[in-house]
Design brief:
The complex is a heterodimer.
Chain A (H helix, E strand, L loop, with lengths): L3 H25 L3 H30 L14 H25 L3 H28 L8 H31 L11 H26 L1
Chain B lengths: L2 H8 L23 H29 L10 H36 L8 H24 L12 H4 L2 H31 L12 H33 L12 H35 L6 H15 L14 H29 L8 H24 L1 H7 L3 H31 L5 H28 L13 H31 L92
Helix pairs in contact in B: 2-3, 2-4, 2-15, 3-4, 3-6, 3-7, 3-8, 3-13, 4-6, 6-7, 7-8, 7-9, 8-9, 8-10, 8-11, 8-13, 9-10, 10-11, 11-13, 11-14, 13-14, 14-15
Chain lengths: 208, 588
């Protein structure tokens, strides 16, 4: 009964139906990806939480902390680094405000600025690594120091990649606009997360 | 009109033009359909189950005699290490959390797919490489430190295998977290309009509690494994007292994940059982809210009991007391569930088919595992049986008698929906009988062996334990053979079994309100809830209510749970104060 023409017509219809359904589906839940990202960052935070608590346990059990003979950490460079990283959170927020006003060049400017600040932070970290008086295996303090800051540095690096991806995509015309800018928002939330983790890390390792 | 007919009438399944059948090739590709991913998880998990089972059979054959004569003791260490790792991380978690939740959640809440379909596929495709990686450790000398991988043991014996073990577990943990994020967001955000939390099927509640645990606990295991990897590969001393570290820190981090992991492995099956029992007892579930909220209670308590694995690790007495009490308290929400299931069956019109038999088997064996769990929670008793076969018996009663019976029950129940074919009932019952006998024969004697003091994880034992060990080995062979009827039944039925109708069990939850197997995007139109998820056995009670089809344009006639058609005047909340009578009776 059914000829091939009818079948292909049906296929086309179904195709449209599916495409519409998918589009409608995304329209229905505009915030799901952000929510998913936040749940993911919560899980990431739990890794850091585990490592922080391990650090505190080692610290509480040690007879003296840092162990005898460990060179004291210098505060000046990490302090400047911290200031740069924290202020970059405010800078990246400017990008979000810009794109909400459909200002793509503003978005590019602020994202580029954040990327540079993040890169300066990473470079500062590397500089500190090479000028410390201890290595990974010197003692338990040194080991925790390198693993914690290194794991955080990995997150900073990933954040830089995210921001560069957003910059790359923003070159495409109308890829981001005031309505659709999930990538911008996601990178911003992720960057805030990296920042908050660093504040805790800095307090634990340098100040306490 | 019965409730099932009412629900079905409100949801005309999409016998549309779309071919509901997937091609077999789709199952070997990166496919984003949650139903394809679910079957990928289940089949992959089952293959690893067969591998892990083969390892277990070798272990039991070795233990048939007191002397280590079949394999050398070091290889024996690898056998039980890989058996444990495979069964937990490559079978129960992927099949239970990945398989069933993937298939059922979107269908049960009336969604077209998961919240993040591509992430879902990524989460699955991490599993086979990680599993193969773990298998590859056989080439370099497999890990020997047990599935717990306690340092310093794990840092000394077969380091290459241990490094592979860590990498494999990190991958599997990542997969598990990515999957859990998806389930969590899907349950919270993608339910059909009109389905509040208290209209969700109980499986969704169980998965909500489970995914919460995965998201909170699994990352901590990743942290522990990262530190362990540094100790192993870079030579740091996190878990080495000579360098200022402490092996007990690893134990804390490990069990902070691995105790909740027990609930990650069993709670999905609490959900499965809560679905299977009311359907096949033809009765409303007893204590819907009690079962739902007790899942959350188990989740919360499960996070604060981990150190009961460490009573002999120098844990101070006051801390032991805390963990002993919290552990015993978990028996309360678990008991609430067990008694609710029993009360659901009580006086029901029970269909004793394979799914129901496995569900009842689940309850009986899980209760034994739960009771021994309360026993080992008591510090003095735990110190006596620590690292003996009593622990092995307890663990298998929970993870085999619980999780694996739950998996089988769920497979028999949802196989028609997953494949569109019915399983053979006779072979299902033979499978159940063999499994139940084999299981109890294998693990029941281990309780006594443990009480007599036989240590676990040792390839040789005192000759006085021989007769009980022979019994265990015999049971393990029955258990191994019991898999064959299932395997043959599943493969044969999938290809040639009788076609399943859309709703072969006359169930009410939404996954039965579509075709078998469901069409590619599950539902033709948004499904509606004409009845609650467990309104069984009401017969013709509400036949005078003519609930219209879901196509009805008028929202008032859309027959959701808040529709005026379903309203019964409650005198307690009457509009005029003079008409109000009595207390408000909120019905389930």
């Amino acid at each position: 009964m059914q000829g091939s023409t009818i079948d292909s017509a049906k296929t086309v219809l179904n195709y449209h139906h599916t495409a519409e359904a998918t589009a409608a589906h995304h329209e229905e839940h505009p915030d799901l990806r952000i929510f998913g990202l936040i749940v993911f960052l919560f899980a990431e935070g739990m890794i850091f939480m585990g490592l922080f608590i391990a650090y505190l346990t080692f610290r509480l059990m040690a007879p003296s902390w840092p162990p005898e003979g460990t060179e004291r950490l210098e505060l000046l460079l990490p302090g400047i680094n911290t200031a740069i990283l924290i202020s970059s959170s405010f800078v990246i927020h400017q990008a979000d405000s810009a794109i909400k006003k459909n200002n793509v060049s503003g978005l590019r400017l602020w994202f580029a600025a954040t990327t540079v600040m993040g890169a300066i932070f990473l470079a500062g970290q590397l500089y500190e690594y090479f000028h410390l008086g201890f290595g990974l295996k010197t003692n338990i303090f040194a080991s925790t120091f390198f693993v914690l800051t290194g794991f955080h540095g990995l997150h900073v690096t990933f954040g830089l990649l995210l921001m560069m991806a957003v910059l790359w995509r923003s070159l495409k015309k109308d890829h981001y606009n005031s309505e659709h800018h999930f990538g911008v928002e996601a990178a911003e939330i992720y960057w805030h997360f990296v920042d908050v983790v660093w504040i805790v890390l800095f307090l634990l390792l340098y100040i306490l | 009109m019965t409730q099932a007919q009412l629900q079905e009438a409100a949801n005309l399944p999409s016998h549309g033009t779309e071919p509901p059948q997937r091609k077999w090739r789709d199952y070997f590709t990166f496919n984003t359909d949650h139903k394809v991913i679910a079957i990928q998880y289940l089949v992959t998990g089952f293959i690893f189950y067969l591998i892990g089972g083969a390892l277990a059979t070798v272990i039991r054959t070795e233990l048939a005699t007191p002397e280590p004569d079949l394999v050398d003791p070091e290889f024996y260490n690898s056998l039980f290490t890989l058996h444990g790792t495979i069964m937990i991380f490559l079978w129960i978690i992927p099949a239970g959390v990945g398989g069933f939740a993937n298939f059922l959640l979107p269908l049960m809440i009336g969604a077209r797919d998961m919240a993040f379909p591509r992430l879902n596929a990524v989460a699955f495709w991490i599993v086979p490489p990680a599993g193969l990686l773990l298998m590859a450790s056989f080439l370099v000398g497999p890990p020997q430190a047990g599935w717990t991988s306690y340092p310093p043991l794990s840092l000394i014996a077969s380091q290459a295998g241990e490094a592979i073990w860590i990498l494999s577990l990190l991958l599997l943990g990542t997969s598990s977290i990515l999957g859990a994020i998806n389930f969590f967001v899907t349950i919270l955000k993608m339910r059909v309009p009109g389905m509040g939390f208290n209209q969700m099927p109980l499986f969704c509640w169980a998965m909500l509690a489970t995914t919460g645990l995965v998201i909170i606990a699994t990352p901590v295991l990743a942290g522990a494994l990262i530190l362990l990897a540094f100790d192993l590969i870079a030579g740091t001393a996190f878990f080495n007292p000579t360098g200022g570290g402490d092996p007990v820190v690893y134990q804390h981090m490990f069990w902070f994940y691995s105790h909740p992991a027990v609930y990650i492995m069993v709670m999905p099956f609490f959900g499965v059982i809560s679905e299977v029992i009311p359907v096949h007892s033809r009765k409303p579930i007893f204590g819907y809210r009690a079962i739902a909220y007790s899942s959350l209670a188990i989740s919360f308590l499960g996070l604060i009991v981990w150190a009961h694995h460490m009573f002999t690790s120098g844990t101070p007495a006051w801390l032991r007391m805390f963990f002993m009490i919290t552990t015993m308290v978990i028996a309360v929400p678990t008991g609430i569930k067990v008694f609710s299931w029993l009360a659901t069956m009580w006086g029901g019109k029970i269909r004793l088919n394979s799914a129901m038999l496995f569900a009842m088997g689940f309850i009986s064996t899980f209760v034994v595992g739960g009771l021994t769990g309360v026993m080992v929670a008591a510090v003095p008793f735990d110190i006596h049986v620590h690292d003996t076969y009593f622990v092995v018996a307890h663990l298998h009663y929970v993870l085999f008698g619980g999780s694996v019976f739950g998996i089988y029950s769920g497979l028999y129940h949802w196989f028609p929906k997953m494949t569109g074919r019915m399983l053979n009932e006779t072979w299902g019952r033979i499978h159940f009988a063999l499994t139940y006998i084999g299981f109890n024969l294998t693990f029941m004697p281990m309780h006594e062996l443990g009480l007599l003091g036989m240590p676990r994880r040792v390839a040789m034992y005192d000759p006085s334990f021989t007769s009980l060990n022979r019994l265990c080995t015999l049971g393990s062979y029955v258990l191994a053979v019991s898999t064959i009827p299932f395997l043959v039944n599943a493969v044969w039925s999938w290809m040639y079994g009788p076609k399943a109708s859309d709703n072969p069990w006359q169930a009410l939850t939404l996954e039965w309100m579509t075709t078998s197997p469901p069409a590619i995007e599950n539902f033709e139109v948004l499904p509606v809830l004409a009845t609650g998820p467990y309104d069984y056995g009401y017969g013709d009670r509400s036949s005078e209510v003519n609930v219209p089809f879901s196509e009805a344009k008028d929202p008032v006639l859309s027959a959701g749970p808040s529709s005026v058609l379903r309203a019964e005047p409650d005198p307690a909340v009457a509009a005029h104060p003079d008409d109000r009578v009595g207390e408000s009776q909120n019905r389930e």
